[in-house]
């Protein structure tokens, strides 16, 4: 699952610092994991990965063009007081990721 997240972060064009914040891990640890030296994930870490994958899945279902979904993450959104979803998620809390995921799940369910 971690490899899928690394690929997603690349598509979202995230800096290592942003990726480490989303995963709530020290930058040095993230870079070590990114290079292939992985350790154990906490329950919080697993929940973060799950929410990030859920966000990606929802975006793929909402947007037929994958690039639009990748771009959406950095686009200001009225639902987040004109902030981007990435800005919300970079709040660093698991609940920030959950907020974006719930929004997307609600949007997807409205179809």
Automatic annotation (TrEMBL):
Domain Antitoxin Xre/MbcA/ParS-like toxin-binding: 58-109
Antitoxin Xre-like helix-turn-helix domain: residues covered: 2-53
InterPro entries: Xre-like_HTH, Xre/MbcA/ParS-like_toxin-bd
Single GO term (MF): DNA binding
Identification of the protein by name: Uncharacterized protein
